[in-house]
Amino acid sequence: MKKKISIITLVMAMLLAVGGFTTSTSTAVSAKNKKVKCLGTYKITAYCGCRSCSGGWGNRTASGRRAKQGRTISVDRRKIKLGTKVRINGHWYIAQDVGGGVKGKHIDMYFSSHSQVKRFGKKYRKVYVVK
Ligand SMILES: [Zn+2]
Q: Which of 31, 61, 87, 106 could covalently link to 96 via disulfide, CB atoms 3.0 to 4.6 Å apart?
Protein backbone atom coordinates (compact mmCIF):
# COMPACT_ATOMS: atom_id res chain seq x y z
CA MET A 1 0.00 0.00 0.00
CA LYS A 2 2.75 2.35 0.94
CA LYS A 3 4.52 1.58 -2.32
CA LYS A 4 1.36 2.35 -4.35
CA ILE A 5 1.06 5.81 -2.84
CA SER A 6 4.65 6.63 -3.63
CA ILE A 7 4.08 5.64 -7.29
CA ILE A 8 1.03 7.91 -7.46
CA THR A 9 3.06 10.72 -5.93
CA LEU A 10 5.79 10.11 -8.50
CA VAL A 11 3.27 10.17 -11.39
CA MET A 12 1.75 13.39 -10.06
CA ALA A 13 5.18 14.96 -9.74
CA MET A 14 5.92 13.94 -13.33
CA LEU A 15 2.63 15.40 -14.56
CA LEU A 16 3.42 18.64 -12.75
CA ALA A 17 6.86 18.68 -14.33
CA VAL A 18 5.40 18.07 -17.80
CA GLY A 19 2.76 20.76 -17.18
CA GLY A 20 5.42 23.20 -16.12
CA PHE A 21 7.50 22.35 -19.16
CA THR A 22 4.54 22.82 -21.51
CA THR A 23 3.77 26.20 -19.96
CA SER A 24 7.32 27.44 -20.32
CA THR A 25 7.46 26.15 -23.94
CA SER A 26 4.25 27.93 -24.96
CA THR A 27 5.54 31.13 -23.37
CA ALA A 28 8.70 30.84 -25.45
CA VAL A 29 6.68 30.33 -28.63
CA SER A 30 4.42 33.32 -28.00
CA ALA A 31 7.47 35.47 -27.28
CA LYS A 32 8.92 34.30 -30.59
CA ASN A 33 5.65 35.15 -32.36
CA LYS A 34 5.94 38.77 -31.23
CA LYS A 35 8.98 39.17 -33.45
CA VAL A 36 7.11 37.81 -36.43
CA LYS A 37 5.09 39.99 -38.79
CA CYS A 38 2.30 38.77 -41.06
CA LEU A 39 2.54 40.11 -44.60
CA GLY A 40 -0.91 38.84 -45.55
CA THR A 41 -1.90 36.15 -48.00
CA TYR A 42 0.49 35.47 -50.85
CA LYS A 43 0.13 33.44 -54.00
CA ILE A 44 2.61 30.56 -53.75
CA THR A 45 3.81 28.84 -56.90
CA ALA A 46 6.70 26.46 -57.52
CA TYR A 47 9.71 26.33 -59.80
CA CYS A 48 12.78 24.19 -60.33
CA GLY A 49 16.12 24.51 -62.08
CA CYS A 50 14.85 23.18 -65.41
CA ARG A 51 14.93 25.22 -68.59
CA SER A 52 11.20 25.89 -68.70
CA CYS A 53 11.17 27.16 -65.08
CA SER A 54 14.51 28.96 -64.83
CA GLY A 55 15.78 29.44 -68.38
CA GLY A 56 19.54 29.03 -68.30
CA TRP A 57 19.84 29.87 -64.60
CA GLY A 58 19.52 26.29 -63.35
CA ASN A 59 19.81 26.25 -59.58
CA ARG A 60 21.82 29.47 -59.37
CA THR A 61 19.96 32.19 -57.49
CA ALA A 62 20.07 35.99 -57.45
CA SER A 63 21.78 35.84 -54.04
CA GLY A 64 24.64 33.81 -55.50
CA ARG A 65 23.71 30.73 -53.47
CA ARG A 66 22.66 27.41 -54.92
CA ALA A 67 18.92 26.92 -54.68
CA LYS A 68 17.85 24.25 -52.22
CA GLN A 69 14.45 22.66 -51.79
CA GLY A 70 12.86 23.51 -48.43
CA ARG A 71 14.96 26.67 -48.12
CA THR A 72 15.02 28.72 -51.31
CA ILE A 73 12.13 30.93 -52.33
CA SER A 74 11.94 33.55 -55.04
CA VAL A 75 10.37 36.89 -54.13
CA ASP A 76 9.62 40.37 -55.39
CA ARG A 77 12.45 42.44 -53.91
CA ARG A 78 10.11 45.41 -53.45
CA LYS A 79 8.02 43.30 -51.04
CA ILE A 80 10.62 41.08 -49.37
CA LYS A 81 14.36 41.77 -49.27
CA LEU A 82 16.81 39.05 -50.24
CA GLY A 83 18.09 37.19 -47.19
CA THR A 84 14.82 37.61 -45.27
CA LYS A 85 13.55 34.59 -43.35
CA VAL A 86 10.02 33.85 -44.47
CA ARG A 87 7.56 31.47 -42.78
CA ILE A 88 5.02 29.65 -44.90
CA ASN A 89 2.88 26.83 -43.47
CA GLY A 90 4.99 26.75 -40.30
CA HIS A 91 8.24 26.22 -42.19
CA TRP A 92 11.02 28.80 -42.50
CA TYR A 93 12.41 29.60 -45.93
CA ILE A 94 14.96 32.18 -47.06
CA ALA A 95 14.32 34.76 -49.79
CA GLN A 96 17.30 33.92 -52.02
CA ASP A 97 16.03 34.43 -55.53
CA VAL A 98 14.04 36.74 -57.77
CA GLY A 99 12.18 36.07 -60.98
CA GLY A 100 10.66 38.06 -63.78
CA GLY A 101 7.28 36.46 -63.10
CA VAL A 102 7.44 37.00 -59.34
CA LYS A 103 5.72 40.31 -58.65
CA GLY A 104 3.94 41.74 -55.62
CA LYS A 105 2.31 39.30 -53.22
CA HIS A 106 3.70 36.27 -54.99
CA ILE A 107 6.35 33.78 -53.85
CA ASP A 108 7.92 31.13 -56.06
CA MET A 109 9.11 28.12 -54.08
CA TYR A 110 12.13 26.12 -55.26
CA PHE A 111 11.82 22.37 -55.80
CA SER A 112 14.54 20.02 -57.00
CA SER A 113 12.37 18.35 -59.64
CA HIS A 114 9.82 19.51 -62.16
CA SER A 115 7.35 16.75 -61.23
CA GLN A 116 7.12 18.27 -57.73
CA VAL A 117 6.60 21.70 -59.31
CA LYS A 118 3.67 20.32 -61.30
CA ARG A 119 2.23 18.59 -58.23
CA PHE A 120 2.50 21.77 -56.16
CA GLY A 121 0.50 23.89 -58.58
CA LYS A 122 -0.67 27.13 -57.00
CA LYS A 123 -1.66 27.83 -53.40
CA TYR A 124 -2.63 30.84 -51.31
CA ARG A 125 -0.93 30.99 -47.93
CA LYS A 126 -0.35 33.48 -45.13
CA VAL A 127 3.25 34.65 -45.11
CA TYR A 128 5.25 35.74 -42.06
CA VAL A 129 8.64 37.41 -41.78
CA VAL A 130 10.99 38.08 -38.88
CA LYS A 131 10.61 41.72 -37.84
ZN1 LIG B 1 10.83 23.05 -63.87
A: 61
Read off the pLDDT of residues 27-37 as tens digits, 9 standing for 90 and up: 334 445 568 99
56-76 confidence digits (pLDDT tens): 889 999 999 999 999 999 999
Number of folded domains in the chain? 2
Domain check: are 98 and 111 in the same one?
A: yes
Asked whether residue 80 falls in the same domain as residue 23, the answer is: no
Distance from the alpha carbon of residue 105 to the mean position of ligand 1, in angstroms = 21
- Same domain as 78, residue 46: yes
74 CA from centroid of ligand 1 (Å): 14
Cα–Cα distance, 105 to 120 (Å, whole number): 18
Q: Ligand 1 centre and the CA of 87: distance in Å?
A: 23
Domain shared by 14 and 41, yes or no: no
Query: Which DSSP category does 78 fall into?
Result: T
User: Does the structure show a pLDDT above 60 at 21?
Assistant: no
Cβ-based neighbour number of residue 73 at 10 Å? 26
Amino acid (one-letter) located at 69: Q
CA of 124 relative to ligand 1 center, distance in Å: 20
105 and 68 housed in the same domain: yes
pLDDT of residue 131: 82
What is the greatest pairwise CA distance in the chain?
Answer: 77
